[in-house]
């Protein structure tokens, strides 16, 4: 089982510079064997050099024990092995030291230099020893036998550990690179998951805002007109029964329209909740989270889809006449004027323009009952402009007492700004109120 780089670092449990305890035990065992070997080989070396045997043994023990630091200072181990090569000792020290050097992070040119020095030293020593053995045994061999034996032995003691060390070092570096890549990928996936959650939360907030805005547009205008008609109905119920019946019919029609629009919106929300539940129960790969969040975010910004992705057809500019007529039927003195060539626009543009006029008329019912109102539409080359302006309200305010949530102007501005348009509202010099908006045609 492979581990990531962080787990690999936390797995360090050995003493000093060892990453594992078993590595320390292995190096300790190799150092003991090497020290024993060099100590035994120090006996003939001391005799040949005319030194006390104890000196040769101690020298061999010290030289062989250097193998204990092969992982920390491989260059020092190889240098010691080269230094004791003329004394015909330290064969295990040279083999293991050269392997450790080749497997380490030491630059290749240093590895090649030290390996070449050890090869040359081993070649000279083996040539001399083989020649002495042949002369001592008085063997009759060809002239090629001594150099062949020296070259073969020296290559056999240097080439295999060097090649094996290079292979192990390359494999170790590859594994480290793979660990780093795995760690980087894991961090990227975590970052993507966090960003996807943030975008999903942002999309949910945008969707909630959009739904609240739609509910406000649907409910506020219809219910405001219903309250106005109900107040008028109460005022004329006894004086003018015929007009009271007419107002009652208008209230019923507006209530049915409001209920129809609310049912459509709630149906979309219900189907969206069911779809979201199915998606939550399904097993979704981590890589798809970002795409899903991005899709949800784009739907929220677009406003072209509901919570389940189903489209709800909004109002259009052709219904402005009916909207103005409803306000006029509620007792408002309202005049509609249209400039430019009438044409169709994108559904979002027409819906937003309709909602701006609708909300502006609703505000007139709430805050300036009985005031004369002017609704102007201007179809231009690359944009559509609308303006709703009312005169100062009459002294006798309406008895409807319509409440205000204070979100109408904010919602209109958000709608227009989302399409790249400009929205301005404020009181006029004459004491009335004006709402103006310009929306790009595409």
TrEMBL record:
Reaction(s) the record says it catalyses: ATP + protein L-histidine = ADP + protein N-phospho-L-histidine
- Note the superkingdom of the native organism: Bacteria
Enzyme group, top EC level?
transferase
Q: Per the database record, which ranges form the Signal transduction histidine kinase subgroup 3 dimerisation and phosphoacceptor domain?
A: 207-273
Concerning Pfam families, the annotation shows:
HisKA_3
Q: Name one GO molecular function term.
A: phosphorelay sensor kinase activity
Q: Which UniProt keywords apply?
A: ATP-binding, Coiled coil, Kinase, Membrane, Nucleotide-binding, Phosphoprotein, Transferase, Transmembrane, Transmembrane helix, Two-component regulatory system
Q: What is this protein called?
A: histidine kinase
- As recorded in UniProt, its EC number(s) are 2.7.13.3
Cellular component terms (Gene Ontology): membrane
Q: Which InterPro entries match?
A: HATPase_C_sf (IPR036890), Sensor_HK_TwoCompSys (IPR050482), Sig_transdc_His_kin_sub3_dim/P (IPR011712)
